[in-house]
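Agenda item 2: nicotinamide-adenine-dinucleotide complex prediction
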Amino acid sequence: MQTVKVNASTPYEVVIGAGVSAKIGDYLIELGCKGKVMIVTDSHVAPLYAEGVADELVYRGFEPSIYTFDAGEESKTLKVYGEILSFLAEEGFSRSDTVLALGGGVTGDMAGFAAATYMRGVTFINMPTTLLAAIDSSVGGKTAVDLPQGKNLVGAFYQPSLVLFDTDFIKTLPYDEIRNGLGEGVKYAVLEGGRIFEILSEGLTSETLEEFICLCVDAKRRIVEADEKEGGTRKLLNLGHTVAHAVETLTEFVVPHGVAVAYGVRVMARLANQRGELSEEEFYKIEEILLTNDLGLELNPIEELIPYFTADKKRAGDTLTLVTIAGIGDCRLTEIAIEDAGAYFMV
Ligand SMILES: NC(=O)c1ccc[n+]([C@@H]2O[C@H](COP(=O)([O-])OP(=O)(O)OC[C@H]3O[C@@H](n4cnc5c(N)ncnc54)[C@H](O)[C@@H]3O)[C@@H](O)[C@H]2O)c1
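Presented output:
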């Protein structure tokens, strides 16, 4: 078991290890929680883990309730968010009670937003159950729901009081979801280099899983501590995301987020190499890490993607902040005028 301490505006611990979910009641007592706990979960995760977590809470004197929504991004809506808030009110939750997310990034983002806003904020605990949520979305305090006009358009920065990731949860995760998490993992590998890159170059195994998650969480911790509200350096975490959002929109979200991010990293690596900013040797190392992790996707002609970069103009303004790759472990923020995007990408 390992612990990463995040010194955000509200400090908290991220605990990672096999079997840690069995101690959830003890952790909540340590945090000073008492009374009611709303477990927010989805329809795939509920039958696997919700009763076990609820039993632990009852054993430690808490009063848990379970709110289950239909699994999938389609549920990350104002409607389901509203239903969670109504359920909290119906069950008589007060400001001193707790919301606990048990699931992937969809659950964590939506339950976190409910916790941030119910009675102007109640204690929020995140128990991620996907690789993507463990290494990325559960840390950093971004909570949100989607609107028909776009993803994550309504939300808040709201830090959890604890993140508890039981590595045993990965055992039931379908292969496609592991691959999706590895997509965000490749992003950290290129941002950080070093051991994260080495682990994914060799292929993640059950022996390296805990170390890998800790290293990714620690990388995110450093970035979030330096820039919690994404005024500057936190934007580095958007490596691959401009292209990823274009791919997600183009494919109507058939390509899942993490896989789209890996695709975006590949496009950015190729671009950097063509622009003479990334050496041939490092470019091929990035290509190889993508192939090793089953993320060597066939690339669309860049002309098909460019119109989507500018689609967000109303929200993004006239400039596009790209995360460019100068080397493995050396990524930078580069601002370009949106009208120059075509020329920039068509080297
Ligand atoms: N807040 C942030 O900083 C941040 C960062 C990255 C992504 N995100 C968000 O995260 C979301 C994607 O997260 P995700 O990929 O975890 O999606 P998800 O929550 O939909 O989970 C993926 C699938 O795996 C299933 N599942 C989850 N855990 C399981 C387990 N242990 N065993 C079996 N099945 C399991 C879920 O039911 C779902 O079908 C997106 O909405 C994205 O916007 C947020």
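Discussion summary: Residues 42, 44-45, 48, 71-73, 76, 103-107, 109, 129-130, 132-133, 136-137, 140, 142, 151-152, 169, 172-173, 177, 180, 257 surround nicotinamide-adenine-dinucleotide (CB under 6 Å).
Owner for follow-up: CH.
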